[in-house]
Every structure is written in structure tokens, then in C-alpha cells.
């Protein structure tokens, strides 16, 4: 087991003493050993009597031959070796499994535990070692002080609320008394055109201490899934993908012609207020929560959820990424910041304010949830201090399209904006409400189908409205971005482009890149994600001067070759570029001549197999000896003489011809070489093993683990319509048999290719997981003389030398 911690704040000794007193851990004792046993006695909050403490000591080894209870009887001074032998056991590491007593200091450092350089001959050294022990992660994913809190350490102690230790909010709030209430925020919208402004249901969970005057910040999660989904309707709306690619008529469209500009809309007047209320008149039993919010509920934050327009108990219609959906999101933030109205229900017009709020808001969530956080941040809305956006879309075109092609998010062939709107229009759940809105919504859905344009796949005004990148310049909120480098649902380009755009904006930004798919990472014991977010949110929302802005690295990236290893980077850019040229079977260091052809059409049997089993196609397209031979180009480098790390967007340049007057190109970059590789989906280590507070909710503990030996792994991929060589909104001419030059970037990556492996390039037509599948009689030919791949190289070794 290895732990990686980036959220520990270096602390001066006087501050350590002050903080230990604040959490009721420090009582001055006469010598080092007694001071240590004073700390140890507080480490078993479940035990109420001295004999029970002694029993606990008997379960812990202090040396190879003595239990902690026996060592206490000897009255010998504590040594560093004994301190860390006991400390590792308190941190849930096991003797002989995770560490050996004979090599405890060395093993502790390998695990990642802070080990003091001082001898423990003074109380100051002992106290410092214990202070940092409290901040150190346990084997199962919590810092030690958080583990003690989950076992009831704060339950019987009178401490300040909120309480901060090492700059992080502590779990001192009573989660069994959380107040749950519902309000309805009036948004400056009328998306269902009923002549009334849309009211949006908001579910709030806040500490009971707010009733006594405490003002708390809010973690707001905007989730269109929150009030339910319509899987049957979504399946029915899903588009057929076994359709042919078609020729597009060339045009000279410029970006200015398709640029989105919002038209002024005459809104209905605001509701007339009939009265005021301090407390809501509606509650709820159990929200569809996000575990990171649950973690902070025990630490003095409110959790706020809203599904937005077109969802159950709210008004309006679903619009999938439109400006209206962004406005609906910012309306909730404005209410939390005291700048918008809400009502106790949708009938009585009784106004209610967020009087319990300190007017500081952070947004959280993954996928669509993180997408709306990104959208809100790019408006500069007042009150939004920061967002933690995970696997978020930054440009909806690049979610459902790519370079003039209709491209499905990985795992969802046939999905599109209208399908997602249909799936999340949860007003459908209430038959009486749906009856009133059904015809209007269906008409708008038909309009969306037309505007999203699955025929050409081109970028147009519909998609420009749903591109947040041009508005990044308006951002005032600091941003933490989290993304999977193997996420083929919301592909890595989304976060890479947001990261790049934010370089021109004077806000704090941080980027965490993991080796997983479309997942959360807050429950992985190898990384102190929750601690880092705790430092960040305590700093941003409570104003704690904990140096979080300097503590958290610019970029944190998980290594792909070993388990439980995270490294820091300053930027997501290459140090140099290396070019490899295509030839018959090799990616050569020198330009080559000749050509290679491949056929897109498969036999009916083979085509049927792959449409029903995309995973089989994904495997066989990469195999060196493959049934798809003749339906792809494959070239590989010679075995690498040293490990190579790719960092950024590989660029493919092809001189290519299609046998017809239209066509597409798909590309994969592949790591060839037998090795155990990290699984892209983390393994569950313990069900409900991560407590989020004392007698509160739990999360499963998960971790990325190495799988069995495999012969290859896709590094990244990309696609292009051969008629969109100039831009995604302009259609170029293409003649049958004509060689044209195409250049496009693949999805960005950070990936180490080990020594002895080969980098492979696969070029093909139909991507069974993402493109349309026409199974058409098309032959593609690559001219090697004009074809190359440019590899972005990150040279960490040189950086370490310099």
C-alpha cells in the first residue's frame, strides 16, 4: 500500500500546540513518554474506562516482543522506531503484511507516512510527530484525525463549530439533526412559455447549528438527474447508427455566420410577493446525494441540490446545455448569495431567503453536474467562489461531434442532445403535470433534432450556444478540474481545452488527471483527494488562511505503469516533439514513399458481430494478427530503447484518398508490449468502508489495480470527416480518388510507454463505438510521403537534472 498526500499544511510548533488544544488533544505531561501515552489514551474514543484503554494497548505491538501495554509497564523512553511501529498500526497498517518492525522507519517512508527527521528526545519533537500523525492518511482512506472523528472522538467534547485542524474543517457537526428543506427559486426564464417565470425546486441540507445563528457556505450540485430519469423514453429517442456516411455539399461558411448571439427575450413579470417566511413549508426524505457533499455536511457546510428546468417539481423544459440551462443554474447561486428570490411553494407566493448562508458557494459534481458547474463559472456569477468540476464537458459539440462527424460518447451509440433532454425531462414522471406540457415539449424536441443536425455533423449555431470555452474570459471563480485520461464518455479534450483557456484568466486553477474512465476519485485511499478539497474549500468558503492556494500542485497526474503513484507537473504541454513517418508496417524516423490501402466494408456476418459486440471490435482492431487485417493500416515503431512519456495532443498528418467523394478517418495510438496494466475501472476494496462522519453515511473504498498481462492498450484516438479539413463548420470539396492532406489532433493524454514497448498507429474508417456504421464500399489509400504522426514528449529526467 502506498499513500500520496498533497494536502498536509506545514505548520509551526506554536500553531501545532494551539490546534491540538482546540481539538482537546493536548494536555501537558512531565516527560516525552507520558506525553505520548496521553495522546494514545485519546486514540480510542469508543472506550470509556482506563481498563478498556489497557485492553486496546494489549492488541498493539510496540516491539517484536512487547505489546504496547507491556511497554508502558517498562517505563522506558519511547524511541522513533517504537513510535512509528505503533503509529502504523493506529493507521490500520498490518505488521508483516504492510510493514516489518525491524525496518519500520524505512517501510513507513515507502508507504508514504510522514517520518520526522528528529529524535524523540524532547516533547517538542514528540508533539510535532503526533501532530503530523493526525494529518496522515490511514490505510483505508481517511486522515487519522478524521478516522477518530468517525469513531466518535468529537461526540462528547465541547469544541468550536466550525473547527479547523491543519487548515481543514473537522467533522464536528451532528448529522442526525440536519435540517432538510425545499424552496422554489424564481429564475429569469420562461422556457415552457406559460406566461410565468420558471420556478426551480431546490433541496437543501444544512447543519442544525444554523438555527442558532451560524452562517455556513454551500456546496451546490446542479444535477438534471436529481429528480429522476426516463430511460424508456431515452431509449426510444436514441438514433439509429447503422446508417451510411453521406456526402456534404461544399460551402464557404465562416464562423461569424454561425456564431451564437442570444436574442433579447421579453420575460413575464416577477411574481407578486404575498408574504415572508423564515422556514420552509416542505421537506424531503432522502436526496440523491454526492458523497463529497456528504463528507462536508459533517464539517459545517450546507449541501444544495437542484435538477433545474424541465425536471420533476420544477417548471420549464429541458434544453440540454443551452444558455437557459446555465441561467437556471446561476439562479440558484444568486439566491444563495442573497441576490434572487425563492418561495416556499409554487402557489402561495411566500418569499423565503437563504438567511443561513454566508453567501459563498462552491459547485461540485461529475459529468453533466460538473458541466453545469463549468457553465456557471464562465458567467462570472456573484457568489460562486470556486468549482470542483469532474469529467465535465466544456464544449457540447465535442461531446456529440468531432471534426464534422457525428460521434457518440463512449458507450452510448445513438445518443445526442435531444436524447439526453428526453432522458432528463423528469416532469414526465407526474402524469398530471406531463399532460399540460407534453405537446409543447415534443414540439421543442423536434426542433432540437433539426438544429443539432445529425445529417452533416457540422458545427453550427446550436453547438456554438453550447460551447463554454469562448466565455471562459468571464470566469471569476477558482477552478479545480478532475478528469480521467481513459474517459471516452467525456473525452480528455474537454478538460485540456478548459485548462488552456484558463491560462489567460487571472483565477487559481488546478488539474487532477487519473487513469480511469468516467468515475469519481474521492474514495481512493492512495490519494488524499478529500483532504485536498477540504483545504481548498475551507480556504475559499470559510476564509481559513491555510495556504491551500500554494499547497495544491498545479497538475497532479496518476502514473499509468504502477499502482498508487501520483506525480506533479507544472503544465500539460510537451517538452519536445518527435515525428514518426508512416511506411508499410513501421513508424519510421525517416520519411518514406509508397502507399497502403484498406477497405471499410466488412462481410455481413462480421459487421453483425461487431454491431452487437463493440468490445470485440475494440479488441480486434488493435490486435497484430486481426480479422480486421485489410480494413485498417497498422504501423509500429521499433522497440523503445528507453521509456517515453507522451504529454499533450498527438497530431496526425495524412495524405489520404477515398474511393468515393466523401469519407472519414479514425485513428488510434496504441502501446504494444506485454505488461500488466492498470484497470480503467477501480476495484472495490471494501463495501461501505469509508465513513464520512460519526454514525453518518459511508462510501465504498476503491483503488486502481493492475490487471493481468495484456499485449496492447489504446493510448488515445481521434476522428475527422474528410470534408471538414479546414474547419468543423466549413465543408470542403472531395473528389473520388483525390489525395487530400488532413491534419488533426488526437485526444490529449499523459502516458508512459515502457522501455521495450512499441508505439503503434492504427488508421481506419468506421469506429464501431463512436461513428455511424454504414458498412459502405469505400477504399481508403494513404500516401506515405505525406503522412506522419507527431508525438508530444515530456522529458521528466531532464527536468529533474535541471
TrEMBL record:
What reaction does this catalyse? Hydrolyzes Xaa-Pro-|- bonds to release unblocked, N-terminal dipeptides from substrates including Ala-Pro-|-p-nitroanilide and (sequentially) Tyr-Pro-|-Phe-Pro-|-Gly-Pro-|-Ile
Q: Sorted alphabetically, which InterPro entries does this protein's record hold? A: AB_hydrolase_fold (IPR029058), Galactose-bd-like_sf (IPR008979), Pept_S15_Xpro (IPR008252), PepX_N_dom (IPR015251), PepX_N_dom_sf (IPR036313), Xaa-Pro-like_dom (IPR000383), Xaa-Pro_dipept_C (IPR013736)
Question: Which residue numbers delimit the X-Prolyl dipeptidyl aminopeptidase PepX N-terminal domain?
Answer: 1-153
Q: Where is the Xaa-Pro dipeptidyl-peptidase C-terminal domain?
A: 534-790
Pfam families cross-referenced by the UniProt entry: Peptidase_S15, PepX_C, PepX_N
Coiled-coil regions, chain positions: none
Q: Where is the active site?
A: 367, 487, 518
* Database matches in SMART domains: PepX_C, PepX_N
Q: Which family does it belong to?
A: Belongs to the peptidase S15 family.
Q: How does it assemble?
A: Homodimer.
Name of the protein this chain belongs to: Xaa-Pro dipeptidyl-peptidase
This protein's species is Enterococcus phoeniculicola ATCC BAA-412
Write the gene name: pepX
Amino acid at each position: 500500500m502506498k499513500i500520496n498526500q498533497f494536502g498536509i499544511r506545514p505548520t509551526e510548533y506554536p500553531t501545532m500546540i494551539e490546534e491540538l488544544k482546540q481539538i482537546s488533544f493536548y494536555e501537558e505531561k512531565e516527560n516525552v513518554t507520558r506525553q505520548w501515552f496521553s495522546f494514545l489514551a485519546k486514540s480510542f474514543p469508543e472506550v470509556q474506562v482506563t481498563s478498556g484503554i489497557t485492553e486496546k494497548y494489549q492488541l498493539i505491538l510496540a516491539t517484536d516482543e512487547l505489546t504496547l501495554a507491556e511497554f508502558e509497564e517498562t517505563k522506558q523512553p519511547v524511541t522513533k522506531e517504537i513510535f512509528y511501529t505503533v503509529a502504523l498500526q493506529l493507521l490500520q497498517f498490518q505488521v508483516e503484511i504492510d510493514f516489518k518492525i525491524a525496518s519500520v522507519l524505512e517501510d513507513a517512508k515507502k508507504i508514504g507516512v510522514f517520518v520526522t527527521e528528529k529524535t524523540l528526545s524532547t516533547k517538542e519533537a514528540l508533539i510535532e510527530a503526533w501532530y503530523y500523525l493526525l494529518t496522515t492518511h490511514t490505510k483505508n482512506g481517511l486522515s487519522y484525525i478524521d478516522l477518530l472523528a468517525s469513531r466518535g472522538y468529537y461526540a462528547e467534547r465541547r469544541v468550536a463549530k466550525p473547527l479547523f485542524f491543519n487548515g481543514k474543517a473537522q467533522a464536528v457537526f451532528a448529522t442526525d439533526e440536519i435540517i432538510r428543506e425545499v424552496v422554489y427559486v424564481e429564475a429569469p426564464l420562461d422556457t415552457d412559455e406559460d406566461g410565468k417565470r420558471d420556478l426551480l425546486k431546490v433541496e437543501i441540507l444544512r447543519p442544525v447549528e444554523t438555527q442558532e445563528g451560524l452562517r455556513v457556505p454551500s456546496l451546490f450540485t446542479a444535477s438534471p438527474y436529481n429528480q429522476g430519469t426516463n430511460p424508456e423514453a431515452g431509449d426510444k429517442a436514441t438514433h439509429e447508427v447503422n446508417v451510411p456516411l453521406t456526402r456534404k455539399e461544399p460551402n464557404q461558411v465562416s464562423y461569424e455566420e454561425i456564431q451564437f448571439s442570444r436574442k433579447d427575450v421579453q420575460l413575464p413579470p416577477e411574481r407578486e410577493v404575498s408574504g415572508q417566511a423564515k422556514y420552509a413549508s416542505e421537506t424531503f426524505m432522502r436526496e440523491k446525494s454526492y458523497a463529497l457533499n456528504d463528507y462536508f455536511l459533517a464539517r459545517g457546510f450546507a449541501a444544495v441540490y437542484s435538477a433545474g428546468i424541465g425536471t420533476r417539481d420544477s417548471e420549464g423544459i429541458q434544453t440540454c446545455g443551452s444558455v437557459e440551462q446555465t441561467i437556471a443554474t446561476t439562479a440558484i447561486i444568486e439566491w444563495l448569495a442573497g441576490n434572487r428570490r425563492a418561495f416556499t411553494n409554487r402557489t402561495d407566493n411566500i418569499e423565503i431567503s437563504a438567511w443561513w448562508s454566508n453567501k459563498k458557494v462552491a459547485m461540485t459534481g461529475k459529468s453533466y453536474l460538473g458541466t453545469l458547474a463549468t457553465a456557471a463559472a464562465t458567467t462570472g456569477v456573484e457568489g460562486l467562489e470556486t468549482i470542483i468540476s469532474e469529467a465535465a464537458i466544456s464544449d457540447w459539440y465535442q461531446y456529440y461531434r468531432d471534426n464534422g462527424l457525428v460521434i457518440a460518447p463512449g458507450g452510448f451509440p445513438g445518443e445526442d442532445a435531444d436524447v439526453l433532454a428526453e432522458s432528463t425531462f423528469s416532469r414526465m414522471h407526474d402524469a398530471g403535470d406531463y399532460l399540460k406540457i407534453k405537446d409543447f415539449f415534443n414540439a421543442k424536441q423536434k426542433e432540437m433534432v433539426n438544429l443539432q443536425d445529425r445529417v452533416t455533423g457540422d458545427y453550427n449555431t446550436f453547438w456554438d450556444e453550447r460551447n463554454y470555452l469562448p466565455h471562459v474570459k468571464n470566469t471569476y471563480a477558482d477552478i479545480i478540474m478532475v478528469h480521467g485520461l481513459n474517459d471516452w464518455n467525456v473525452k480528455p479534450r474537454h478538460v485540456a481545452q478548459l485548462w488552456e483557456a484558463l491560462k489567460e484568466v487571472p483565477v487559481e486553477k488546478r488539474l487532477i488527471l487519473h487513469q480511469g474512465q468516467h468515475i469519481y476519485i474521492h474514495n481512493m485511499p492512495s490519494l488524499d483527494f478529500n483532504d485536498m478539497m477540504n483545504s481548498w474549500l475551507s480556504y475559499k468558503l470559510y476564509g481559513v488562511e491555510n495556504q491551500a492556494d500554494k499547497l495544491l500542485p498545479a497538475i497532479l497526474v496518476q502514473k499509468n505503469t504502477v499502482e498508487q503513484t501520483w506525480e506533479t507537473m507544472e503544465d500539460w504541454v510537451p517538452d519536445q516533439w518527435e515525428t514518426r513517418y508512416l511506411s508499410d508496417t513501421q513508424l519510421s524516423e525517416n520519411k518514406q514513399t509508397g502507399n497502403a490501402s484498406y477497405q471499410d466494408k466488412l462481410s455481413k456476418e462480421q459487421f453483425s458481430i461487431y454491431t452487437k459486440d463493440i468490445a470485440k471490435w475494440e479488441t480486434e482492431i488493435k490486435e497484430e494478427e486481426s480479422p480486421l487485417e485489410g480494413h485498417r493500416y497498422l504501423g509500429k515503431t521499433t522497440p523503445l530503447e528507453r521509456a517515453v512519456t507522451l504529454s499533450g495532443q498527438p497530431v496526425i498528418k495524412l495524405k489520404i484518398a477515398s474511393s468515393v467523394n466523401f469519407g472519414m478517418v479514425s485513428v488510434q495510438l496504441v502501446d504494444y508490449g506485454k505488461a500488466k496494466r492498470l484497470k480503467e475501472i477501480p476495484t472495490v476494496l471494501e463495501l461501505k468502508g469509508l465513513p464520512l462522519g460519526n454514525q453518518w453515511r459511508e462510501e465504498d473504498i476503491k483503488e486502481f489495480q493492475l490487471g493481468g498481462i495484456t499485449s496492447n492498450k489504446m493510448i488515445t484516438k481521434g476522428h475527422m470527416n474528410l470534408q471538414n479539413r479546414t474547419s468543423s463548420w466549413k465543408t470542403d470539396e472531395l473528389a473520388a480518388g483525390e489525395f487530400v492532406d488532413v491534419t488533426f489532433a488526437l485526444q490529449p493524454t499523459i502516458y508512459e510507454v515502457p522501455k521495450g514497448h512499441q508505439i503503434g498507429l492504427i488508421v481506419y474508417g468506421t469506429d464501431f463505438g463512436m461513428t455511424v456504421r454504414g458498412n459502405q464500399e469505400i477504399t481508403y489509400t494513404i500516401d506515405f510521403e505525406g503522412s506522419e504522426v507527431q508525438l508530444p514528449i515530456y522529458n521528466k529526467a531532464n527536468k529533474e537534472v535541471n
